[in-house]
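Worked Example 4.2. Consider the chain below.
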Amino acid sequence: MTPSVLGTEPFDFAIVPEHDFPKPSPNLLVTLGAPNMIREELLKEEGSLLLSRFSCVSEKRWGLLIGGDDANYTIPPSWVEEVLVSLLEEAKDHGADIFMTTSRRTRAETEKRIEKITKGFPNVRMLVLGTRDTWNPVPGMLGLCQRVFCTEDSVSMISEAATAGHTVSVIAVERRNGFKGVLQDITERLAGGGIIPKRFLWGTPRFDEMIHGFYKRGLAVIVSSDPNNVASSVIRKDGRQGDSFNEARRAAEWIIKRWSS
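Applying the procedure from the previous section yields the following structure tokens:
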């Protein structure tokens, strides 16, 4: 995040996310998403551990990373019936085992609904509820699964999945409305019309720009939130695509190069 008062000029090295729309500068590196610690060795190690803990029937394995509520997004229990069930049905039709986790931000009532619904899907091999379990299964899921689905509210999980080499299937969730939402929409229209710079975007429009950056680079696809269209929007491409996208590594290499020059 860009320092709001100081800016980046006082620093020798400034690593700033693309969706902050920073002005180009020699001391500035612009990143997509959130740099993270995902690396190939960790994926293999945690993937093997996950496989030893949870039995698989199918060679097809899908990972579902579900976020939760924050200032911009909300995942109510109704979302489980409206969106998640359709995705679970799609996995069953494809003969895929499901590995699923929620986050510490997930509502307790939403987790209860997920827990109840998944009992009707024997292909759900793992369900880790983030508000009850401190264990982090995400690296193992990213290493073990051929497809990864992530709700749009979690920049960190989308970034980690992309760093692991997945083309991330991003699932829409509900957005908070009210007066703040109206102001965000107005700002987005003004920026879209070129009346104000995009750096004035805030809330969900700013995160939309970030996710669009993943789309443009082929690192993500959208999964429809319409239950009738989930099947047609699910990505058909299995497997990880390598580690060419790694913003933490790129940032480290940039600092070393500038430090030694």
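Residues 77-93 form the longest helix (17 residues). The beta strands are 14-17, 28-31, 61-65, 73-74, 97-101, 124-128, 147-151, 168-171, 174-175, 220-223. Compare this with Example 4.1 before moving on.
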